[in-house]
Amino acid sequence: MTRERHRARHHAGAGAHGHAHAHAHAHAHAHGHGHGGHFGSLWLDSVLGSFATYARLKGRYDDDWIDRLNHLYTTIILIIFTIVVSTKQYVGEPIHCWCPAQFEESHVDYTNNVCWVSNTFYVHFNDQPPRYTDMISEMEIQYYQWVPLILLFQALLFKVPCILWRILTASAGVNLDKIVTLAAETAYVAPDDRDRTIKHIVRYMDRWIENAREYRSGCFIRLRQQISKYCCIVWGKRYGNYLVTLYMFIKLLYLANAIGQLFILNEFLGTNFNVYGFEVMDHLARGENWSESPRFPRITHCFFKIRQLTNVHDYTVQCVLPINLFNEKIFIFIWFWLVFVATLSTFNFLIWVYTMIFRQHRLRYLKKFLRINDCYKSELDKKMAVKFCEQYLRQDGIFVLRLVGKNANDVLVSELILQLWNHYRNKPLFRHANQISDDNSNV
Length: 443
Known about the structure:
Structural class: mainly alpha
């Protein structure tokens, strides 16, 4: 079906413009030709590709696969868990209580409902139940009614950095998603359409770069421009480091969110949840039987009072919570998943800092592609390559190229850099500098 759509689009002459969101599965194949991280993205895409709405959820490509691991894959997993828990709670019977023999059926239903709405408490079978209300309140389990809501809240927290990133980049004057998706789709169009698409992207990037340039003069302006090359403290749309600094901030939000949710769940569950995974691994290493966890007890007790006229009767019944069978496995998985996502987000953030913040790495990235295209030969080329990097593309331009490389492949990045280099050399200021250099060499 996908091939027929691509063939029909090719004969219609639409090229690669405007169909970025209709072929998310095709983009997954394009990712496999880039860096090593693309294999992880390809694997996750294949696992989640069976969902009917996945192509619509996947949407945009204005970030890398670690970001999508946070705001897309993790969100889908948490929503699936929410559906599982909600089905058990609202469709099945989440609690069953052992009632006295004199209780009729209506009394049993009331006991089950009141013990579900109020909080039960856990006591080990060999221990005596507490006799005082204050002691009971300290032992209450207060989370099981709210598990679906906390899972949805977690999913929202993972989505917030992505929403913030897209809101802020919308004001940057460049459509990152359009650039990356057009570049990725050039692998599935005819050569003529491919060349036109690449030229279109180059013209679009050139207009964005020129519009984002600072045309005011003055010592203070020049000082800020120099500082912005080496330090992200001075940043803005006119200093060429707006997108890079913003992206680093969003990366930090993803990392802080993954780590912070361990502590949020620790407060929500009322236990030392942030060490839960270590306890599970310790039990597995010792070969002990993981029969019941005090954090997610299956058998609890419920204390309630029934008023009959002027008499008040106290009852303590034993209840079983089948829902905790699911909660225990879900939160074990969530603990390991949060640690996994936090670890990958940390390494990913450090890699982006290493490649984008330091000036020599940006220059090395451009020089590699210029050498591939035989554009880095003469001394003039070497001098102009530095100006091409620092004065023309600057940090944001190189960031966009790296984003294309991570979502498409390096062949497209090479062609884009070649077109941008030729476009830069044909500018009047460069031709004038080139002519002066040639005259001096002749003399």
